[in-house]
Predict the structure.
Amino acid sequence: MDTFDYSSHLLYRLALAHEPASPLQIEFHPGVHCDLYQCPHCYGHGQFPVKGGALTAEEIDQALASIERAKPTVIVSGITTEPLTHPNAAGIIRAVRKRGLTLGVYTKGYRLNDETCEALVEPGGFTFVTVSLDSVTKEDYMAKHGLTSSNKGAARGSSGATYFDSVCEGLERLRSARDAAGSNTQIRGSFLLFDDTAHQDTIAAAVELFGSDADLLRFSLPQNRNDGCSPGEMSTNPGETLTRLQDKFRDNNKVRILTETSARARTPCFSRCWAQHFQVTIDKSGNVFPCPQVAVSNYRSLVIGNIRDQSLKDILEGEARAKMFEKDVDSEMGCRICDRKDEALNVTLSRLNNAYADFT
């Protein structure tokens, strides 16, 4: 005898009842470049932002003002750029934090200078900072991020050979500023594990090197890039590898092994994008996209407005966005490149829609 799943039905009804004009998450990609990083595992490898001048911190503040009452989580990140390369990164951080909104910053950590660190720990909404580390030695860091000693960058007059040390110093600088301010800003380090690093020695070394500055160290396997290419040499038994590492470090409260990241390829088991009902992403030039992964020139056809032309509130409530909700992911949007968060939402809500559409 079948049993009606009341909890799943409730989740489905809550998803349908959500008002898309009150997003749960707003993501900004304010970065203007990626310094010298040329990471071969980057989602947006070989792709570029839509051309246009960078938003000012004041323009971002104005956009937030129009939807502040919804109290979304605000993410500052990038798909092909480093967010802290914006000329007023600290001003953007302050624009979010002064409104008491939850802020998440995803960065390589190279530009965690004094001003940015101060902005991240001043009084404001809860903030977490995730620094993409990926390596525990300078040599491996350079290899994983496409850096060479001959790389020369205008930023701080540095070369690729200095990046690892600068990131380590930036992480320590942020932790020191946080502790001095008595702030509750959370500092996280993230590691993508490849075939040559997916073992317990790497994780133990990461805890030794970064554990005093990071509150949490997160380890996962990368997805395929947006162009479908493999992100690098991977373990032949990824699920077993992650489970073994989880068992080894289960009692270490600094370590999280994300065992659900073993699959690299995207799933074809949904045809509508449900995730876009709960979020939007705004690129450096003010273009509004349905999600972070498509905020590049390759997917310019998915732009639903620009906050320099309309208020963010009007874009969220607009016809262009409503029409995007109805489009087929493959034949009309052409963007089956979800990150794991959005893919999980799309898979789950598609399944629930198939099961409960007649019971609403």
Summary: The chain has twelve helices and nine strands. Residues 163-181 form the longest helix (19 residues). Residues 89 and 116 are 7 Å apart (CA to CA).
